[in-house]
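Worked example

This section walks through a single chain of length 212. The input is the sequence exactly as stored; nothing has been trimmed or padded.
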Amino acid sequence: MSRALPPWIEVLALQYPGRQDRRHEQPIGNLRELADHVSRELTPWLDLPVAFFGHSLGATLAFEVALRLQQREQPPSSLFVSGRRAPSRFRDERVHLADDQALLAQLANLDGTAPQLLGDEEALRMVLPALRGDYRAAETYRYWPGPRLTCPIHALTGDDDAMATLDEVSAWSEHTSAGFEMKVYGGGHFFLVDHATQIQQLIITELAKERQ
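Given that input, the structure is written out below as tokens.
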């Protein structure tokens, strides 16, 4: 995505503990703890306007980080949330407590993982701890009612996403006192793969408005 954006947008990618070159670190299965870490790490970049984009678990994480920055009187300029129901919409999900086979079956059902990976036992042993940590963070998260965000929220979703209904996604409007926009695309949980160009253009357009 970073190569498709204009040079005036600097992309900072978040690398969770337990993933890729941080795979030897213990995954963080508590979303609020993870948000605390991210908020601290962002401090050097807060002299410029910051906007967040998060997909699935990353959307809820971006929301919690935005709340922390707002408490520090350094709110983001915009929040883009993708493939995730609003924080106030709870589902009693317990995939993180299931055995490895059930966890992998859930992953396969989302159609966002290459079949080659699902058939590679060595690779799966490497990613399962981080994957389970992600599910634990998402499923044990509970929204604490509080102030709304003062930045606009742009909610993006697939029209066939079993992880987030349209009603659940539209409820993001309850979490901002600024503008709210919801965009629905064709596809399931990983709709953004097929609509990357449109989503990139949306981000560019909205951030350009903020520069005016």
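What to look for: The chain has eight helices and four strands.
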